[in-house]
Amino acid sequence: MSPVVVEAEVDINRPPDEVFDYCSDHRHEPEWNPMMTRIAKLTGGPVGAGTRYAAEFVKGPPMVMECTRHERPATWSLTGDSSVMTARGGWRVLPTADGSHLVVRVETEPHGLLRLAGPLLRRREQPMFERDLNNIKARLEGARMAP
């Protein structure tokens, strides 16, 4: 089965370096992703390539995520592994006249029985990623976030 691919994007009225610094430090993720209950940085030093996190979610097993690319203020990538899936995500922050354009592309490879649910995963994940990016926008612009 081919990976489940989801892409989402949003314009944010904040400078690219602020968007990058907030989003690329995934310790902030529980603030904008209501499906994540906890995350802990496992490595020392500043956030960058090689930074690892342990994440826990409302549904599903824990996941270990690693930053595989970190090029401030434009792009970063993560790979995450759990017992039910492998996920690879790429994030880009592009400057705009009013601030930033944030783009995320995630490829998920389900394992085991979850492989059979590939098409359903995409339909479920697309609105979740759009909600998450809108929550990032709301948080950074000081507005109300969606549940």
Report on this structure.
With 147 residues, the chain is α+β, with helices and mostly antiparallel strands. The chain is 25% helix and 41% strand. The protein has 3 helices and 7 strands. It has a 7-stranded antiparallel β-sheet, covered by helices on one side. The N and C termini lie far apart (32 Å). The model has no long low-confidence stretch (mean pLDDT 91).
Give a brief outline of the structure.
It is built from three helices and seven strands; from the N terminus they run E-H-H-E-E-E-E-E-E-H.
Which descriptors would you attach to this protein?
single chain, 147 residues, alpha+beta, 7-stranded antiparallel beta sheet, 3 helices, 25% helix, globular
Secondary-structure blueprint of this entry?
Layout: E1 4-12, H1 16-24, H2 29-32, E2 36-41, E3 52-57, E4 63-71, E5 75-81, E6 85-96, E7 99-110, H3 118-141
Antiparallel strand pairs: 1-7, 2-3, 3-4, 4-5, 5-6, 6-7
Number of helices: 3
Strand content: 35-45%
Structural class of the helices, strands and pairings?
Answer: alpha+beta
Largest sheet: 7 strands, antiparallel
Low-confidence spans: pLDDT under 50, at least 5 residues? none
Assign an overall shape.
globular
Q: Please report the total strand number as a whole number.
A: 7
As a percent range, the share of helical residues equals 25-40%
Give the end-to-end Cα distance, rounded to a whole number of Å.
32 Å
Q: Report mean pLDDT, rounded to a whole number.
A: 91
Order of helices and strands: EHHEEEEEEH
Radius of gyration: 15 Å
Spatial strand sequence of the major β-sheet: 1-7-6-5-4-3-2
